[in-house]
């Protein structure tokens, strides 16, 4: 059994009222002026990425990039944002961080989850 990753996400498609299953997501950490890729995966049938990597996540700036255009293209739908990038600060590496994304074809919202 896998343990939960230190940073997780959940994507809900508000336009359909369903989880955004199969969406590609990349996790990166900022190192100076560059970004270092830590993990990549796809959301499960419930729109979640929970046990997708197990590397250490020290305090710092991180970024999740969601492939929204590819997700909507697979449904034969256009969207305004080809990708959504969420940068956030991880201050306490001992605390789990959950970064949900609510999307529709024309907009998105995010918040610090639990």
What do these coordinates show?
The protein contains one helix and ten strands. It is mainly beta. The strands form two sheets. Strands 1, 2, 5, 8, 9 and 10 form a six-stranded mixed sheet that branches. A four-stranded antiparallel sheet has the order 4-3-6-7. The two termini are 22 Å apart. The model has no long low-confidence stretch (mean pLDDT 95).
- Which secondary-structure class do the elements indicate? mainly beta
Rg from C-alpha positions?
Answer: 14 Å
Percentage of residues in helical conformation = under 10%
Low-confidence stretches: none
The gross shape turns out to be globular
List keywords for this structure.
114 residues; mainly beta; six-stranded mixed sheet; four-stranded antiparallel sheet; 10 strands
Short description:
With 114 residues, the chain is mainly beta. It contains one helix and ten strands.
Write the layout of secondary structure elements.
Blueprint: E1 7-13, E2 18-19, E3 24-31, E4 34-42, E5 48-49, E6 60-66, H1 68-73, E7 84-90, E8 97-98, E9 101-104, E10 107-110
Parallel strand pairs: 1-8, 1-9
Antiparallel strand pairs: 1-2, 1-5, 3-4, 3-6, 6-7, 9-10
């Amino acid at each position: 059994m896998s343990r939960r990753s230190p940073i997780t996400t959940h994507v809900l498609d508000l336009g359909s009222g369903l989880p955004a299953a199969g969406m590609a997501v990349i996790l990166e950490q900022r190192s100076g002026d560059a970004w270092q890729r830590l993990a990549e995966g796809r959301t499960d049938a419930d729109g979640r990425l929970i046990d997708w990597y197990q590397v250490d996540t020290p305090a710092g700036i991180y970024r999740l990039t969601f492939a929204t255009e590819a997700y909507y293209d697979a449904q034969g739908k256009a969207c305004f944002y080809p990708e959504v990038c969420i940068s956030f600060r991880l201050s306490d590496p001992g605390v789990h961080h959950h970064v949900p994304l609510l999307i529709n074809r024309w907009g998105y919202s995010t918040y610090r989850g639990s």
